[in-house]
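Extended Data, panel c. Modelled sequence:
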Amino acid sequence: MIRVLIDENISEHFAEGLNQLQYPLKNDIELTSIHKEFHKGILDEDWIPKWALQSGVFITQDLGIINSDQAFLLKNNIVGAFFLKPPKGCDYWDRVELVINNWTKIVRIIEEEKVPYKYFITPRKIGRC
């Protein structure tokens, strides 16, 4: 089973809902949230290494992980990372739509590629970071 962690900047409720929607696919992918696995407010420096040991795949909108001093987290931990890049001024439903519209591509990457990998998810495409 591959577990995919949804960061708190998306929504724990979205993680639960998407997990239920994709469950009938029987593809051995389970979604969970930061809130469920750790706790709200946990620092990236704490959850990324722990998650890398458990599964190594997450979806976040926190581009700071790759654009700042936190970039070492991705280099030092074997993870699969998907970074949402919605348009400026997007709301909750825009983020939901961004993931849902790309879900089959995300699943294909998760199933076919070995970690580590990093992808951007934009309204137009999924591309490597």
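The chain has one domain: 2-128. This feature is highlighted in the accompanying rendering.
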